[in-house]
């Protein structure tokens, strides 16, 4: 696998959930990548071949995109590699989604769409594809993100929504306490979260907990310690959640994170 990684620009902190990654991977044509749930949206710009993506619970259905985006989801996505994966991937926070794509992340909850459906011109993809180096591609994309973020500053969500998001993502967050902190009833918090994020408060907590535990276990923390640290009742609870969200056990996910072979 070849490619490049570009750290988050200071002006994009809080908008990108992590670095931008350029990748060029050759795999067995049967290889399938599991796109895991996270408290962020995933954007992929594909080169050489369009990305073939669907959902694990509807394996016979998929669509091909040169540039795609998915909102937050609570089921694994399936990416059929067909032997080639070449592109750029980045993750947008809810604020980043709204400012850069000028829409709430909730508009694509548990869905995948082409970026053209959100008003992103195909000319950008063509420019990136023509660049000879990953560093230049990532630099050009960063310039576009910075431009769009500045242009869309007026479309920021309310302060209470942003505060609720921060509180829900904290380890040990409780829905009633978050609602009280922002001055809302539990019902109003749920309605606002579903409208803005596409998922209810409990699902935000669930996604954040899964994402943190996965990153920690991948870095060497034991499953038992991860269960304790991130608020699972025990290791069995962590494993059940992992299987429901990732479609595989923790050991399968870590051993085969990218790619796996489809039976």
From TrEMBL:
The molecular function terms in GO held by this entry are: DNA-binding transcription factor activity; sequence-specific DNA binding
The keyword DNA-binding is assigned to this record: yes
Q: By its UniProt entry, which Gene3D superfamilies does this protein fall under?
A: Homeodomain-like (1.10.10.60)
Under the heading InterPro entries, the entry gives: AraC_XylS_family_regulators, Homeodomain-like_sf, HTH_AraC
Alphabetized UniProt keyword annotations: DNA-binding, Transcription, Transcription regulation
Could you tell me which residue ranges the HTH araC/xylS-type domain spans?
Answer: 168-256
Top-level taxonomic group: Bacteria
Q: What is this protein called?
A: AraC family transcriptional regulator
Q: Which organism is it from?
A: Enemella dayhoffiae
């Amino acid at each position: 696998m070849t490619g490049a990684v570009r750290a988050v620009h200071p002006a994009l902190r809080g908008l990108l959930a992590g670095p931008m990654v350029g990748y060029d991977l050759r795999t067995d044509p049967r290889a399938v990548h599991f796109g895991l749930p996270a408290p962020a949206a995933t954007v992929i710009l594909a080169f050489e071949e369009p990305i073939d993506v669907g959902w694990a619970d509807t394996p016979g259905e998929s669509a091909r995109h040169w540039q795609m985006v998915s909102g937050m989801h609570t089921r694994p996505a399936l990416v059929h590699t067909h032997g080639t994966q070449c592109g750029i991937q980045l993750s947008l926070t809810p604020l980043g989604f709204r400012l850069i794509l000028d829409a709430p992340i909730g508009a694509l909850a548990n869905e995948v769409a082409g970026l053209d459906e959100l008003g992103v011109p195909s000319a950008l993809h063509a420019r990136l594809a023509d660049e000879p180096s990953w560093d230049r591609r990532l630099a050009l994309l960063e310039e576009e993100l910075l431009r769009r973020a500045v242009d869309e500053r007026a479309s920021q969500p309310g302060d209470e929504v942003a505060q609720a998001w921060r509180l829900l993502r904290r380890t040990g967050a409780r829905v009633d306490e978050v609602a009280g902190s922002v001055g809302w009833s539990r019902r109003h918090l749920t309605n606002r979260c579903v409208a803005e994020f596409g998922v209810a408060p409990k699902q935000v907590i669930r996604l954040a907990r899964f994402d943190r535990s996965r990153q920690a276990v991948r870095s060497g923390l034991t499953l038992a310690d991860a269960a304790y640290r991130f608020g699972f009742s025990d290791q069995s609870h962590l494993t059940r959640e992992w299987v429901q969200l990732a479609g595989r056990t923790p050991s399968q996910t870590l051993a085969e994170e990218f790619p796996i072979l489809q039976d």
